[in-house]
Design brief:
Elements lengths: L1 H10 L3 E9 L9 H18 L5 E6 L2 E7 L3 H16 L7 E8 L16 E3 L2 H4 L1
Antiparallel strand pairs: 1-3, 1-4, 2-3, 2-5
Length: 130
């Protein structure tokens, strides 16, 4: 995350980090592990089908996904999240909602960003879109 943030800051290209997460209707963690696991798989597919070529995402844990949106504006981030939410709504898990938090990577250069073991990153390319 730091390397990407620094590179984006040097090049002048904007980069936003979006966290999509699953919660109950009140935004609290989902306690039913079977329901959470099912919703997590559906959110993964929703994110994968909603991102542009060149964006990247990873599953941080069962309820959270981290998404890098390269060259996006703050308004574009909202549009991307709307696409993700609509894709998830086509096959939702009852009682599980999708939420997001968005931050500019440039703003976080001075902060200590620690995502731990974020697993594998998935880049969106032409093959994944088709």
């Amino acid at each position: 995350c730091r390397i990407i943030s620094r590179n984006m800051g040097r090049s002048g290209i904007s980069c936003y980090l979006m966290m999509c997460y699953l919660g109950d209707r009140n935004g609290k963690p989902v306690s039913n592990t079977d329901r959470l696991s099912l919703a997590s798989g559906r959110l993964f597919a929703s994110i994968q089908s909603s991102l542009r070529r060149g964006d990247a995402f990873t599953q941080y844990n069962n309820s959270q996904f981290l998404i890098f949106l390269f060259g996006a504006s703050r308004e574009n981030c909202g549009i991307v999240f709307d696409r993700i939410r609509k894709a998830y709504a086509e096959d939702p898990v009852r009682g599980v909602q999708v939420y997001s938090q968005i931050t500019s990577c440039a703003l976080d250069l001075e902060q200590d960003i620690n995502f731990g073991d974020a697993g594998r990153w998935t880049t969106i390319d032409k093959a994944a879109e088709e």
